[in-house]
Amino acid sequence: MGRDFYQSGQINCPRLTFGNRYADWTFCPHNLDEHSVIYSFGVGEDISFDLELIQYYNLHIHAFDPSPRSIEWVQKQNIRAEFHFHPFGLAGQDGSITFSEPAEPGIHSLKMTDSFRGDDAELKTHLLPVHRLQTVFEKLGHERIDILKMDIEGAEYKVIEDIIHSSIPISQVLIEFHHRFSTVGIGMTKQAISLLNGAGYRIFNVSASGEEISFIKTCS
After folding, report:
1. What's domain 16-217's architecture?
2. Would you tell me the crossing angle of helices 156-164 and 133-140 to the nearest 10 degrees?
3. Which site in 105, 117, 144, 158 is 20 to 30 Å from 218, CA atoms measured?
4. Whole-model pTM over 0.90
């Protein structure tokens, strides 16, 4: 169908993988400690990656998800104080965006409406708050981001363009790409990788599915 894509690694560095199966992420542990700044966008109903980072490094996690289901789930958890949850999403703009509930049974992640085909127009929608990364960064008052994790259901492409034009110092970017969506395709993922490469980011890990890709900033 023209949607299969696999990108090879571009650089070698130490790697660790944290999180449950289907919610795991691979990162480079170099220079991470209790002072590291971690942004985790798109937590859904599995924060195993975030909690393992907290346990291993005694650091603080800033996690984000605007979906009502995720917000309700997080509120019911007995979570360590180092986990800070923010009930809004990440996008290439500030404001509100319409998200649609998925048609697939058993799938709970909301998707931006422009990630859907026209025949999905009758699905239930939610108007939810989102912010640009620059806005979030300034709001939280940080000086850098050591790890930026994004599982944001197709919104990553506009966010990447926005990040490239910002001055935020980000060491690692962990992204789940959604080129499997009918309105996305592998061309957008290839373009996003090219943009990140041009900004000095190199791939150090690719998941077995080829959708989760880990980048680290190098001297350019």
Report:
1. 3-Layer(aba) Sandwich (3.40)
2. 70
3. 158
4. no
